[in-house]
Amino acid sequence: MLSFKQEYYLPTAEQHQQALISNLQDDLMSEPEFKSLVSNLMITDSGLEAVFAMSLIDLKVKQMNQHNQKNYQELINDAVTAITVLNDEIDYIVDVADEELTVHAVMQPILAVTTFLLGKSPIVRFCEDREEKDLMTRVEELINSFHSTIHKSAEHNRQPH
């Protein structure tokens, strides 16, 4: 009798990568530190939140051909590091700006001006660049965009009006 046998099915590397990405994305989205970062960055759209979580998965996933514990751990560690770095940097920016202000009161104008200067949201740019740049490069660029905005704003405020 002819019949399909599961043992002959050989999943492709792409299927393993997609399983790894989905596993990581689901886990990241349930992490309190991720939720805090999403709040700090004022991401309110659930679709953008899901894309942002996927964007925290480093490019090296493309070289991984197995959905296994070792690869998962390497990628989740990178993502958690990126989340921690971004949350810490936002905390630093808020502390320097004014400890009395809320994170949203400090970050809202920074995000708005950065969006204006870049011509698009820095979060959208972070997500769009996920196919070309490694995770920590994108984290550094996101942080630098905030500091550049702060610097340009300070320069503007020093000029006579």
Structural notes for this entry:
It is a single chain. With 161 residues, the protein is mainly alpha-helical. 70% of the residues lie in helices and 0% in strands. It has helices at 13-29, 32-40, 46-55, 69-97, 103-118, 122-128, 135-158. Helix 2 (32-40) crosses helix 4 (69-97), helix 3 crosses helix 6 (122-128) and helix 4 (69-97) packs parallel to helix 7 (135-158). It is elongated and about 65 Å long.
- Helix residue percentage: 55-70%
Low-confidence stretches: none
Radius of gyration: 19 Å
Q: What is the arithmetic mean of pLDDT?
A: 90
What composes the largest sheet? none
The topology string of helices and strands comes to HHHHHHH
The amount of beta strand, in percent, is under 5%
- State the end-to-end CA separation: 87 Å
Summarize the structure.
This protein has 161 residues and is mostly helical. The protein has helices at 13-29, 32-40, 46-55, 69-97, 103-118, 122-128, 135-158.
SSE blueprint:
Layout: H1 13-29, H2 32-40, H3 46-55, H4 69-97, H5 103-118, H6 122-128, H7 135-158
Helix pairs in contact: 1-3, 1-4, 2-4, 3-6, 4-7, 5-7
Main attributes?
single chain; 161 residues; mainly alpha; 7 helices
